[in-house]
Amino acid sequence: MHTDTLRTDLAAAFRMAAHFDLNEGICNHFSVAIPGKEELYLLNPYGVHWSEMRPEHLLLVDGRGTVLEGKGEVEATARNIHIAGHRANPKHLCILHTHMPFATSLTMIEGGRLEMAHQTAARFYGRTAYEEEFGGFALDEDEGARIAGDASNRGDADIVFLANHGVMVGGPSVAVAFDDLYFLERACRQQIYAMSTGRRLKLIPDAECRHTASQWMQVLEFQATEHFEALKRVVG
Question: How many structural domains does the chain have?
């Protein structure tokens, strides 16, 4: 995929995330790995609000986090989390990291998990991992590598819940990664609303979860692409 297209899509993903209140101030970060022999990434500069993000704002950085193109600063946590994340699972062309409210709420609960209690949650069946320990801000490379550990150990983990922190979502395209981010937050919101009743969750049997997950996977790329294009028209 051409770098200009990746820039356009990634910038649009930031604006969409702001539209749905998935951002936290000017913090959190999204990245794309540029296909090719060199280790190159697109990352958001610190200080640009997601609602105003445009393709020209994005920074092109190398594997050390050195800015090669663009104006601005790469936040240390962005550099350490995203470069380690892409290296841990190269199939993730795009990695999105947020502290979005409902998904993050599950990381604050002892033993918090996305439970298979709704068909939207079943979309993520077998695709989630959990980093159980909070290690503070990822201001050094070691913490970034630790956070990426589950992605490295589990090639099927597209979603990682980070204890007391937030989530990371990786995908083969910006559209698929954003679609997962969007539906992950909705699944977590549905679960928290249901939990707030104080009643026990009615879980979907494992066999049905597998079946529903396979149905999701059959339409995931097509649906994600169509949804992403529709949101481009709506959000702008």
Answer: 1
